[in-house]
Amino acid sequence: MARVLITFLFSLLVFSFPVAGQANVKTADEFEKIRNTIRESYAHSPTEGLNLVNSLLETDDFSLEQRVMITNYKTWFLFENNQFEDAMQSVVEYKSMVSRLSEKSLMYGYYNLSGGIYSRLGLYEEALNYYNDAIPFARQRNQLLVYQVENNIALIYLELERFKEALTTFENYKLYAQTNNQTLNESFASMNIATALVGLKKYDEAMAVLDGLLILQEKHDYITHQSISLVLKGKILRLLGDLEASENVLLNAVDLIKEHDVSSEYMSAILALTATYEAQGKIEHAISLITSIDLDSDKYTHFETQLEVAKFTASLYEKQGNYQNALIAYKQYNDIQTVALKRQASVNLTKALAEADLAAKEVRISELTKTEQIKATKAKAFQDLTIAISMCLFLIIIGSFIAIRSINRQKHKLAATLKRLHDTQSHLIEIEKIASLTSLVSGMAHQLNTPIGTIVTASSLIDKYLTGLSDKFENRNLTSKHFHEFINDTSSAKELVISSVNRLASIVEEFKSLNVSINLDKPMSNIVLLEYMHDRLEPLSIYLEKHIYYEVSGDDVTIMSYPSILGDVLKTLVINSCEHGFIDRDEGKVDIVIKQNAQCVDIIYQDNGVGIEDGILKEIFTPFYTSNMGSQHLGLGLNVVFNAVQYNLKGKICAESSDHGARFIITLPIDVRLVDEE
């Protein structure tokens, strides 16, 4: 016993301290809302999306699996913003986190993200290898991820000018997105379909796709996608020979990009607009526009676009006869290629260094694990010592047990007596339960008898009318007057049946309100009682069609409870005052006083109605008890209030004698969660 006591005290001491690093992680529904916010932010701007995920990762409100998913978004947004080295560092961290999870299908993200980085760097073969490795993991997750990987592979097909294969994949992806109401993915797929159609020289079909797509993108504020679609539309108009329309669309695209700082698409828009000016013969204008781009800046998008700009600039200078500047542009073209190769090497080097750093960290973690094992061994030795001391104490205490042996005998006798008392008490409780159930069943039967009797009587009348009508028909003396009387009589009887059935349904619904669910699905929150009482009581006058004056006073206290349930309790009490206290009046007054105690708060409800007789104060919370039975009242309202306060709000309610109206006192805990834990 001594050992058990020491162990219990030691455990109590240890577990009384908070666990370091433990945080309240997001629920599945909360996290899904955050993911939707991230997607919407990215659709507006990759930079905005990156800022959001960085701020989220700085908090401790996520599980490891949730952090893996947010890191997936972070990596994607990094290389969308041309931060390839940081993206590769992030993807290595992603792989490390997934390795600590039991759900290995999340390794899909590592291969998919790696493929995206290599694709953006122009290393298409490496990208295809990673995407193909991602497919098996995507199948373990869901069909959407499979479509996304296939879509990424099709994007590489576009770069390799395999337009027909790409088009089929994009069309399947769009159909899936539409079926599942995924508008962002539908926007992705539609843009790629239009691009593939341009590659196949099906310009009219591509234009039709873009016209519908721009409406979708504007509706959902997909600014980045909208700017890409406008640039592509301008290119198609140029290819169709409508140069003026092409210029107008591309100027709108440039304005949109500048307004929303979509820097990743600026260079593509300027390049397309320059090509339109060149097609119009505005060589000087085209050169002025394209040379305004600073190709040495890291602000813009893919290096392939930078190469196109440099090459097109050189061709414009050649048309102008300015061969010196053309040579400078070609040199810039070569410089960009050199920088791209260096960037590819830098990203690969970053990956190798990140993986090496990760391996070093794992070695350090292994060393720390060994240290912890040594500490555990020491702790085990200390535990053995504690057990030995406990055994010594036990030997000392056993002598005391012998001395109090006679006391134990008396204790056993008292325990036997107490057991008999408990048995008697349990028997009395069972008797009381049976009596309560009998009262409940009697009340229910009393309520149901009237409508059931009406239904039986009406049914008998209908049967009688049918028999009479049948006799007249068989005797061939049935007239239209007889038939008209039959219709009128049976219609009246039918109305009685319908009215009684509706009354039965109403009674059953009120009876079902006796059931109080302990497992609440209504949210709890902090309630500032004075403010809350004002907000919930004032609208009730309109609802009840009586003018009720409210006065709320007392302590300014905040509790943690269920506001919706407390509001229903107050509403029922006010309805009770109107229907019983103010029954012969068009107005009344309700006073509510709030008093704070140490661990609870008292809400004192007082009206100035006719009041409640002292003799029935103990009966008013009983099911089916009502002083106004003739007015279709079942007597369930205050019983529902009693159940809600006691079982849902973990409090107490009682009715007190009062000289001026009805008086109820509701006692609620300051924090309902503490009552649950106890």
TrEMBL record:
Residues 443-672 form the Histidine kinase domain. The chain crosses the membrane at residues 385-404. CDD domains: HATPase, HisKA. Keywords: Membrane, Phosphoprotein, Signal, Transmembrane, Transmembrane helix. The keyword Transmembrane helix applies. It is an enzyme of class 2 (transferase). It comes from the Bacteria. This is histidine kinase. It comes from Pseudoalteromonas lipolytica.
